[in-house]
Design goal:
CATH topology of the largest domain: TIM Barrel
CATH class of the largest domain: Alpha Beta
Largest sheet: 8 strands, mixed
Structural class: alpha/beta
Number of strands: 16
Radius of gyration: 22 Å
CATH superfamily of the largest domain: Metal-dependent hydrolases
Shape: globular
Helix content: 25-40%
Number of domains: 2
Number of helices: 18
CATH architecture of the largest domain: Alpha-Beta Barrel
Strand content: 15-25%
Length: 477
Amino acid sequence: MMILAADYLIRVDGGAATRDAVLVRDGVIRAIGPPTALREKFPCAEFLALPDCVLLPGFVNAHQHGRGISQILLCYDDDALEPWIAGRARYGAPDIYAVTRLAAEGMIANGVTACVHANYDYATGDYAAELDAAIRAYRDSGLRATICVGYQDCGFEVYPAPGEDGPQATRYAGGVRETIELLDVLAERYRDHPELTFALGPAGPQWVSDAAWEALSRHAARRGLGMHFHLLESPAQASACRKLYGRSTLAFLKTLGVFEARTSCAHGVFMTREDLAIAREMDSVVVINPGANMRLFNGAPPVADMLDAGCTLAVGTDNTAASDDEDYLREVRLAQLLGRRPGIDAHGPNAKLMLDAATRNGARAAFLGGQNGTVASGAPADLVALDLCRIGAGLDILPCDLANHLVGRAQGADVRLTMVGGRVLYSATEADRERMMHWRLQASRSVRCRESRDAQAVRDAQARLRRHYRLDRHEPF
């Protein structure tokens, strides 16, 4: 049992700051109140003072792939999305456990307490083993993770166009049956690990056949599982979906029964007004990844349009954040700025809305349910403490302005403590820094030892992609 007492507490119920402390027992928040009153009522509880800090719900990175090593450091220069994806074939798989563990440790050090591990396949031919290594990395780190079992049966070199004869092949675990069986096996294997949640991860509309969408959606709805997928991330994807469906992409997915299950979708850069309306109607959380979208030449997500349409937004780094690290707070700030419309009316998302996106909306995108992403009695004790000294630059911060200061100035380096399920996973100590360095070295060694593949073949494939999509251009929306 522990009492955490910072200078301020933000529950994310309107963003108001109070002077309350939090009592944690058995991984759950049991009481909230004045520090003195809690100490008197629970005299046996350990008391953890966090001076010059604000305590708030941990952040949720609602879309990332467990890539712990920067793609730039791996010599994958930023490029248009499709050639960039093809460029990853230059090398074989790294030590998947080490790379994923580094990603998890990086998120924890930046105040992230939960994440979505979206579909990712290192093409080793044994997807089950790949996914198991990633899952063990999250489990051992202590980070709460929603693991998406991936699926793809279309669009392996270029995205499918009308008239193509069905699926081209399969990846990940294989067909729909094999995918569902793998999901069930993993859920059973890790059923005693409450920090792990499992979901289906169909890669995205242009990568998944209609029949597969229907089958996966039925299974997810029957089992009460979530489905997390990519949506309209690039100009090429938007063009492919226009040709495939001839209408709003989400309107077509709705006819397939996709929204019978709980859903969240990532990116949404090229969502139409109808797409946005359906996302709101179907209560599908849209996870924006602003740094990745702009780095990979897809343009900025239409944050202002999404908010005007009433969509629920969460934020992810996609392991390709603008600052090329896992500084989640910088991505939240970038998302806020992109939501500001030009003009004298100063129209845009406020700091309280962005804190919602970073916490409880992210928990919804990760299908965590309940009171995850909030500070409330009965909620999981997933908490982050931010040091106000640098944020406030030595000035007194008024409680009424605290949310603005956090979204406007806070960085990952300001994280003083990260707690998941009542366990302190990071406390900005030398031991924490040494642990991060250990996994950085382990992951880096595994990357350097990878066997190089035919670089010329990869360059040829990238050139084919560029030629194809130049010839395949369509008018923008």
